[in-house]
Amino acid sequence: MADQITLTIPCEPDFQSVAHLVLGGLAVRLNLTVENLEDLQLALEALLDGGETVDGDGSVTVRMSLHEDALETTVGPLSERMLAGLVADNGDELGLRRVLASTVDDVSVDGDSVRLTKRVGDG
């Protein structure tokens, strides 16, 4: 079973640093390189920075799971507009999906959430 931390925070810049801090602590436990941690934090920031990120009460849940060989981060609920942008194939356009795909090893949409996976030893 994976160690897991769940944060529900207001989707405001002041609270994003809390998610980054927890993510950094878990990355240290997994011995992720600084470059891999920066990639994962960039991906998390890209999801949290969207003005239309959350539906409803303005909060977002960030669930971080530490596995033997990977750090998995799930963010949601996300707005329908943001989810549609992640599912759409925009070709060569530099969109959110392309940013996420270039910074983490796996991106998947599950309902109204996005799961990001960064594996140990992968670039």
Q: What's this entry about, in short?
A:
The chain is α+β, with helices and mostly antiparallel strands and 123 residues long. It has helices at 13-30, 34-48, 80-87, 96-103; strands spanning 3-10, 59-66, 70-76, 106-110, 113-119. The mean pLDDT is 86.
Could you explain how this protein is built, in words?
The chain is 40% helix and 28% strand. It is of the alpha+beta class and 123 residues long. It has a single domain, classed as Heat Shock Protein 90 (2-Layer Sandwich). The protein starts with a strand and ends with a strand. The model has no long low-confidence stretch (mean pLDDT 86).
Largest pleated sheet: 5 strands, antiparallel
Number of strands: 5
N/C terminus separation: 25 Å
Looking at CATH, the homologous superfamily is: Histidine kinase-like ATPase, C-terminal domain
Whole-number total of structural domains: 1
Content of β-strand: 25-35%
* Overall average pLDDT: 86
What's the order of the H and E elements? Answer: EHHEEHHEE
Q: Order of strands side by side in the largest beta sheet?
A: 1-2-3-5-4
Poorly predicted ranges: none
Query: Architecture in CATH?
Result: 2-Layer Sandwich
- Which structural class should the secondary elements be placed in? alpha+beta
Question: Which secondary structure elements does this structure contain, and how are they paired or packed?
Answer:
Blueprint: E1 3-10, H1 13-30, H2 34-48, E2 59-66, E3 70-76, H3 80-87, H4 96-103, E4 106-110, E5 113-119
Antiparallel strand pairs: 1-2, 2-3, 3-5, 4-5
